C-alpha cells in the first residue's frame, strides 16, 4: 500500500498554526534588536517560544508513531536510525525526512514563529527548507551527539547561508542531555566532519590550544518543552548522554536563504533527485517557507 508523501504539499495541510500573512506574522513574532545582536555576537539565540503545549503533544504522538520501523510511511525517510550509535547503552534515535510523513511535522516548517525568526537571523532573506531531523534520547541510556559544526555535513550546498533551529519536545536539562554551545565558535574556520554518534570529544582532539580553551566557556541550553534555539552553521555544539529518568526528544529544522545552490551532481538527500552542480535549490523538496514583508529591514 502506498503512503501519501506530504512533500507534494508546499503549504500547511492542517490548522495546527494560524494562517497569517507575511506582514501579520512579522508584526506578531519578530525578534528584537537585542536578540539579533546576541545571535551575531555569540552564534546562537535560545529560549524562543515556538510551540504551545497542545502542539507539543501532537508532535510527541506523531513521533511515537513514526519511530516504529513498521510505520507505513517509513520508506519516505531520507535516513532512519533506531540507534545511530549501535550501543544499546547509548541509544540515539536519529532520522531525516519525517516532514513527508505526518501533518504536524510537515506543518512546523511553516510555523509563523519559526519562519519569521529564521528570516531575520538570515539577514531578512527569504527562507527555504533544507532538511529536518529527529533526535530522541531515552531515559537512563540515551547517547551523545558529538561536538560538530552543522555545515561540515552540508558542504554539498553553498554558499554558507544556512541556519539550524532545535526545538525540544521534552524539558531539556543538563541531566537528560541538553544541547551545549561553544559561544563565538561560529567565527572559526570550517572543521573536519565527525561521526555524529561517535566519541563525544573526537573533534576536540584536533583543535588548537585557543579553540580547546573555548570549551571552558561552553553553555548548556536548558529550556522548557516547546522552546527553540537557533544557531549558526559553523557554531560548534553537541549534547551529552541522558542518564536521567526522563526522555529527551527534539526535532531540528535546517533552512537556508533563498538562492543557495548545489555544489555536487550527486543526490543531496537519499531518494531525492539530484540537483545539478551550480543549480538553485528549490522545488518539491526545498520549498519556500517565508518571504519577509517589504518593510522588514534589509
Automatic annotation (TrEMBL):
UniProt cross-references to SUPFAM superfamilies, sorted A to Z: Clavaminate synthase-like (SSF51197)
Record-linked Gene3D superfamilies: q2cbj1_9rhob like domain
Cofactor requirements of the protein: Fe(2+)
Protein name: Phytanoyl-CoA dioxygenase family protein
Organism phylogeny: Bacteria, Pseudomonadati, Bacteroidota, Saprospiria, Saprospirales
Amino acid at each position: 500500500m502506498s503512503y501519501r508523501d506530504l512533500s507534494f504539499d508546499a503549504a500547511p495541510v492542517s490548522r495546527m498554526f494560524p494562517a497569517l500573512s507575511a506582514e501579520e506574522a512579522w508584526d506578531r513574532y519578530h525578534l528584537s534588536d537585542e536578540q539579533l545582536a546576541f545571535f551575531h555576537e555569540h552564534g546562537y539565540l535560545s529560549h524562543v517560544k515556538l510551540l504551545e503545549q497542545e502542539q507539543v503533544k501532537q508532535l510527541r504522538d506523531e513521533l511515537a508513531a513514526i519511530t516504529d520501523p513498521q510505520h507505513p510511511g517509513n520508506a519516505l525517510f531520507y535516513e532512519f536510525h533506531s540507534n545511530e550509535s549501535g550501543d544499546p547503552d547509548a541509544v540515539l534515535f536519529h532520522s531525516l525526512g519525517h516532514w513527508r510523513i505526518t501533518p504536524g511535522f510537515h506543518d512546523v516548517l511553516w510555523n509563523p514563529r519559526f519562519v519569521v525568526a529564521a528570516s531575520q537571523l538570515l539577514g531578512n532573506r527569504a527562507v527555504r527548507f533544507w532538511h529536518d531531523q529527529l533526535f530522541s534520547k531515552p531515559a537512563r541510556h540515551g547517547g551523545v551527539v558529538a561536538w560538530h559544526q552543522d555545515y561540515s555535513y552540508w558542504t554539498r550546498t553553498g554558499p554558507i547561508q544556512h541556519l539550524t533551529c532545535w526545538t525540544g519536545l521534552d524539558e531539556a536539562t543538563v541531566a537528560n542531555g541538553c544541547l551545549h554551545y561553544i559561544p563565538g565558535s561560529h567565527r572559526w574556520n570550517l572543521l573536519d566532519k565527525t561521526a555524529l554518534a561517535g566519541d563525544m570529544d573526537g573533534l576536540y582532539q584536533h583543535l588548537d590550544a585557543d579553540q580547546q580553551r573555548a570549551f571552558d566557556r561552553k553553555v548548556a541550553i536548558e529550556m522548557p518543552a516547546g522552546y527553540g534555539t537557533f544557531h549558526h552553521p559553523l557554531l560548534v555544539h553537541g549534547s551529552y548522554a541522558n542518564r536521567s529518568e526522563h526522555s529527551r526528544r527534539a526535532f531540528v529544522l535546517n533552512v537556508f536563504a533563498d538562492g543557495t545552490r548545489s555544489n555536487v551532481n550527486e543526490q543531496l538527500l537519499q531518494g531525492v533527485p539530484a540537483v545539478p552542480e551550480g543549480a538553485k535549490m528549490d522545488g518539491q523538496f526545498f520549498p519556500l517557507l517565508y518571504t519577509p514583508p517589504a518593510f522588514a529591514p534589509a
